[in-house]
Amino acid sequence: MRAGPLSNSKVIEVLNKYYVPVTSSNEGAGDLGKGPPAEKTERRRIYDEFLNKKLGVGDVHVYILAPDGRAIAGLDIASAEDADKEYELLRQVVARLHTEPGQPAVTPRPQSFPPAAAADAMIFHVVSRHLPMGGSWNEYPAENWIVLAKSDWIQLLPPKDIALKASWDVPLPVAVKLVEWIYPQAEEVELQNRSRVDVASLHLAVTTLREGVGRARIDGRVRLRHSFYPGKPSEDYANSKLLGYMDFDVTQGLIQRLRMVTTEATYTTSEFATSIVSISRETFDSSDH
Asked: Which domain range does residue 18 map to?
């Protein structure tokens, strides 16, 4: 959002006092979404009413509804990125409806959280963003989650007789599952990845080792095709180099932690950065997921 911290805080303040902010994703409520039919029907009703009242519409748009659900005001994305313009519209609607201030209707919480997974699975948090950040698509980083079943993550481990400085490569099918989300934020309408991974190379080499517990350096290279818009195939490629480490215990057959970041990454002609971080504990305690 364009403007200084003071303007942004004013928008947050008026939203918390007078509004119930709601987001609607294409993956859930869009025409091709897999969300509840009632939610999709309501979103279509709102869209059609704003269109008929000439209040503006769009996939990325601010729709303001009265308490009874009527369309009352809207803001296109370009204007909504200007904190002063958004604040002014929000205040106008409050004055028009004579809305009384109150506490936030919903307690703030993370919008992205680990998915349910088997107790022996490993979960990885992926964060990716354009460099530099700023502007409509580049304003915030994108998040995702990778779940590897034990049958997959166990293939990351070295053999039990591993020695210092020994090295190995991650089998391609498992490497693909770890790297197929390495691209910056793009438009999506469903949760299934539509990338085509052409290169997924993850090479590990032991740097420290003592009684079966050690650390391995990870060097990786990824090339994948991912069109920015769904349903519009194009030759949009993400090329990246990765550096990271994996702590392991071969005597117990466990991965203690795994971290990777891009050291070089480009999507078409722009730079981006991605990190992949395991969040499972050594004991695979489900309360940590």
From this structure: 5-97
